[in-house]
Amino acid sequence: MFKKILIILILIPILGCRDSKPNILIILADDAGYADFGFRGSDEIKTPQIDKLASDGVVFNNAYVSASVCSPSRAGLLTGMYQQRFGHECNLDSDVNNSFDPNQITIAEALRTKGYNTGLIGKWHLGDKKQNHPLNNGFDYFWGFISGARDYFYNPNEKLKKSIRNVVENNSNTEFEGYLTDVLGNKAVDFVEKNHEENTPFFLFLSFNAPHTPMQAKKEVLEKFKDNPRKVYASMMWSMDQAVGQVIKELKENNQYDNTIIYFLSDNGAAMSNNASSFPYKGWKGNQYEGGIKTPMIMTWKNKIKSNIEFNGFISSLDIFKTSLENAGVDESLIKNADGKNILNSLKANMPLNQDLFWRKDKMATVRSGNYKLIRLNDSSTVLYNINKNFFEDYDLKYENPLMHDSLLNKLDNWEKKLIKPNWIENKNWNIVTGMIYQDLMNNEEIRAYSPKDLN
């Protein structure tokens, strides 16, 4: 789909924009399937606006998030650090009082030092204590909800109870009309317009909860996709796509588009609960097989990056932090602890240098190094795959290539020495299920349980 050119030609030399700070926009989908986008080859799930964005920049064919579940993935994204370094290793249950470490420097806090107006619109899912609130972690404006999920339609009874699922504007409960995904798009448009009027550079984290459960869509969109085998999921993805289109339209109308760095990605792989697809990969949300950690990622910046490009080198969601801050001129002291790299430097290279990538969630840990990937369960069971030759991860090479196995296991052990113990772990039943899933995937066997309800 995308025309391939030499990587050295991806970047556009710009001499006239050196003093103009770029706006920065991160658009995050929630539990979307890797191939459930037109730009990733889907005919069933329609995403024309996101596809246009993809054709306007670079599509990363080997992009990964730092966690296979929502909350730690966000913690890594916003800090540019492996979130295990500060204990944010496992997911938060929707109403559990665990939290993001407020001592960490977020991308929003760093950008404020350079005069950026910072906003978060949508899902937070990083804790509900006062010190975890977006306004206390670098964001000037927040419209969204604190928890990991909520209904897409407003219920008037919400204002009668205090819940982290309630929609708030800054610190106050608020109401909304219509479909939440549409509203998030409209709020993002308002934020963009306000900063255009004030001639202020902005950072916006547009954090959709679509297509996360509950599975709810607008009637008119459901009618559009009535013959689609995944009609509710397809409808939710369509609404998110249209909301993205509205934001891009606003940027273009205000002549802000060319000098806005835009990232689009999903927080983790396809969930089993929302009809998303991890095709063509093995695994899904919650595990570290490719289907759980590989993300459909786009980056556009018309002033710097040519259109219609594919990039095959390793990219991590952690890279967004350093890429954004270095291009905004943020002081190195606020960047030095980041684990990610500057993506633009990778795009400039003739041969992309693929750094080792690591994952850990409680008893499950993984390293990818070059073409090889090692997955470890409970400090004892391991599998080794050559992803280049066996992307479906069903042929274990540990006995055929013991030297590579031991090399990767040593890299994983050395990385873990830099980490702290998780500040919390997921509930007991989910841990049991996750362990069973890993065992079945590692042994290429039928999955015995997908969630705790399957244990009965």
Please explain how this structure is put together:
With 456 residues, the protein is an alpha/beta fold. It folds into two domains: 328 residues, 3-Layer(aba) Sandwich (Alkaline Phosphatase, subunit A), CATH 3.40.720; 99 residues, Arylsulfatase, C-terminal domain. The protein is built from eleven helices and 14 strands. Strand 5 and strand 6 form a beta hairpin. Helix 1 packs across helix 6.
Offer a quick outline of the entry.
This protein has 456 residues and is α/β, with parallel strands linked by helices. The protein has helices spanning 48-55, 70-79, 107-112, 180-197, 219-224, 231-253, 290-293, 319-327, 343-348, 402-416, 428-442, and strands at 23-29, 58-64, 117-123, 141-145, 168-169, 172-173, 202-207, 260-266, 297-300, 309-316, 357-361, 364-369, 372-377, 381-386. Helix content is 26%, strand content 17%.
Structure characteristics:
456 residues; alpha/beta; Alkaline Phosphatase, subunit A; Arylsulfatase, C-terminal domain; 2 domains; ten-stranded mixed beta sheet; 11 helices; 14 strands; 17% strand; disordered N terminus
Named CATH topology of the largest domain: Alkaline Phosphatase, subunit A
Helix percentage range: 25-40%
Give the strand order, joined by hyphens, for the main sheet: 6-5-4-3-7-1-8-9-2-10
Order of helices and strands: EHEHHEEEEHEHHEHEEHHEEEEHH
The overall average pLDDT, rounded, is 94
CATH superfamily of the largest domain: Alkaline Phosphatase, subunit A
What is the beta-strand fraction?
15-25%
Supply the CATH class of the largest domain: Alpha Beta
- Quantity of strands, as a count: 14
Coarse structural class: alpha/beta
Uncertain stretches:
1-8, 14-18
CATH architecture of the largest domain: 3-Layer(aba) Sandwich
* End-to-end separation: 46 Å
Number of domains: 2
